[in-house]
C-alpha cells in the first residue's frame, strides 16, 4: 500500500499507510472528544420519549416542504432550537419536531454546526 500523509494534516507530516500516525493516535486525534450520547442526555429515558413522540408521525421536512406531498416517516426527534446542554430546552416537547434521517442530517449540517461546519443557530 502506498504511503500517505497522516490524517492529522496539516499539523502532522508523518507518512502512514492509512489514518493517523502513532504519535497523533496517542494524542487522541481522530476520536470524538464529546461526552457520550448518554452523557449528553440521549439515554434510555430519551429513547423512550423520542419513540413515543415519533409514533405515527411523518417528517415535517427540512427545509419545510422538502418532501412536497410525499409522506415520509419520521425517524428522528429533532430539537428545533439546539439545546446546547440546557435540560429544560432538551425536554421541552414544543421544541421537538419529527424529521426523516435525510432531513435531520441536512439540518445538523446546515444549522447546528454539525459535520465540522460553523454553528449558525440561536
TrEMBL record:
Listed Pfam families: HNH
GO molecular function: endonuclease activity; nucleic acid binding; zinc ion binding
InterPro entries: HNH, HNH_nuc
Location of the HNH nuclease domain: 49-105
Matches recorded under Gene3D superfamilies: 1.10.30.50
SMART domains registered for this protein in UniProt: HNHc
Protein name: HNH nuclease domain-containing protein
Amino acid at each position: 500500500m502506498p504511503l500517505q500523509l497522516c490524517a492529522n494534516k496539516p499539523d502532522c507530516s508523518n507518512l502512514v499507510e492509512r489514518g493517523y500516525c502513532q504519535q497523533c493516535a496517542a494524542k487522541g486525534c481522530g476520536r470524538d472528544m464529546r461526552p457520550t450520547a448518554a452523557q449528553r442526555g440521549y439515554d434510555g429515558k430519551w429513547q423512550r420519549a423520542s419513540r413515543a413522540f415519533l409514533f405515527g408521525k411523518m417528517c415535517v421536512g427540512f427545509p419545510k416542504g422538502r418532501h412536497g406531498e410525499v409522506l415520509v416517516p419520521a425517524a428522528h426527534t429533532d430539537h428545533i432550537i439546539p439545546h446546547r446542554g440546557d435540560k429544560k430546552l432538551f425536554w421541552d416537547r414544543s421544541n421537538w419536531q419529527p424529521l426523516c434521517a435525510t432531513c435531520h442530517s441536512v439540518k445538523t449540517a446546515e444549522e447546528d454546526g454539525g459535520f465540522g461546519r460553523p454553528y449558525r443557530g440561536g
